[in-house]
Amino acid sequence: MTSRLEPLVSIVTPVYNGEQYLSECIESVLSQTYTHWDYVIVNNCSTDRTPDIAREYAARDARIRIHSNETFLRVIENYNMAVRQASTQSKYCKVVAADDWLFPECIEKMVRLAEDHPTVAIVGAYGLDGTRIQWTGLPYPSTVVPGREACRALLLGGPYVFGTPTTLLYTSEIVRSRHSFYNESNLHADAEACLEFLEHYDFGFVHQVLTFQRKREESLTSHSVKLQTYLPNKLYDLVTYGPKYLGDAELKERIRFRLQAYYQYLGSQVYERRGKEFWSFHRRSLAKLGYRMSRRRVTAGAISRALEFMLDPKRLVRAVVRRWRVSR
Question: In the chain, where do the E strands start and end?
Fold first, then answer.
C-alpha cells in the first residue's frame, strides 16, 4: 500500500522529555510499509534534547513537522493537543507514544482492514508489552466485531482488547467529532473513547503483533499500576456506560461484583502499609461515583485476606518474600 491514491494517515506523537526513546519511535514510523502519511511530533515543553531530535528528523523528511506547546499540558490534555494536529485531509489518525514503536506493517495492516470494512471506526491489534503479548481474547479469525458486542463483553468481565492509544487506529471522523477526543478527567480515557464511540460503529482487529510498548517508572502506566487506578475505572465504566450496553439486572450484578472485588483489594492493602496518597485517591474515586468508602467493608476485606493466608501458609511466605524484595 504505497500509492498516493491510498488514504492519508495522520500519525501523532505527544512527547515530554523523551530523548531516550524518541529516535526509535520516529524510525519505526519511517520504516512503515505504508507511506502515505504525515507525522506531527507534539513537544510538551521538554527540557532535554527532545526538540533537537525532532528537528533533525523534520529536516530530513518533509512529512514530519513539529508542534511546540506554549505551556505544559497534563498527559491526557497533551494527547488531545496531539490528535488536534492531525491533517484535515486525513482519513485515519494513528497515535504512537514517544517511548513506544510500530512494527513495519502496522499502519498498512490496520488501514487495509478499515478500508475493507467501512463500518469500522477503531482498529486494534496484538501488542508486545515488554516481553508479553497483550490484548488477546478475540477468537481468530474474527476481524470485525459489532462495537456494542465488544463493549458488552468488556463490561461483563470479558477480555480487554482495546489496548492503548499506540495499539489503535482511529478514523479521523470520530477524532474530529469534538474538540477534546479524550476525556481529560479520566486517566484511562483511551478505553473510555472506545466505549463511547463503538456504540454506533464496529471494532476491527488485526491478529498480528503490530506495536511495542515499554513501561517506564515515571510513565502514566506505572502510576496507574502503583495506585491501581484500574479498579475505580472499571466501576466508572459500568456506572457511565453500563446503561447503554447492559440490562438492568446485568448492570446491578456487575456493579455488585466490582464493588466486592474493589473492597477485597483495598482490604489486602491494609497489610501493605499504603500511604495517604493511596487511600485519598481511592476515597475520592469512590466519592466521584456516588459511593462513600466503607471502613466496615475494608476491614472485612482485610479479614478475608488474613484467612486466606491462614489457610495457605505458602502464600503468606511468598507475600513476605515479595514485600522484602520490594523494600530492598
Answer: 9-15, 37-43, 64-68, 92-95, 101-102, 120-129, 132-134, 144-146, 169-171, 202-213
* Residues 203 and 280 reside in one and the same domain: no
Q: Give residue 159's domain range.
A: 9-216
Q: Give the separation between CA 97 and CA 297, rounded to whole angstroms.
A: 39
Are both 59 and 201 inside the same structural domain? Answer: yes
pLDDT in single tens digits along all 328 residues of the chain: 444 579 999 999 999 999 999 999 999 999 999 999 999 999 999 999 999 999 999 999 999 999 999 999 999 999 999 999 999 999 999 999 999 999 999 999 999 999 999 999 999 999 999 899 999 999 998 999 999 999 999 999 999 999 999 999 999 999 999 999 999 999 999 999 999 999 999 999 999 999 999 876 555 565 677 788 989 999 999 999 999 999 999 999 999 999 999 999 999 899 888 889 999 999 999 999 999 999 999 999 999 888 876 666 665 446 544 555 555 5
Residue 273: C-alpha distances to residues 217, 223, 262, 276, 318 (Å): 21, 18, 17, 10, 17
Q: Which of 164, 190, 216 is the last residue of a domain?
A: 216
Residue 142 β-bridge partners: none
Which of 216, 240, 260 terminates a domain? The answer is 216
Report the domain count for the chain: 2
Among 299, 287, 123, 117, smallest CA distance to 207 is for: 123
The CA distances from residue 142 to 25, 204, 306, in Å, are 29, 9, 43
Residues 130 and 187 in one domain: yes
CATH number assigned to the domain comprising residue 211: 3.90.550.10
Does residue 3 fall inside a structural domain? no
What are the respective helix, strand and coil percentages of the chain, to the nearest 5? 50, 15, 35
Helix H or strand E encompassing 149: helix 147-155
Residue 4 lies in a domain: no
240-241-242 Cα angle (round to 5)? 105
Q: Are residues 165 and 283 in the same domain?
A: no
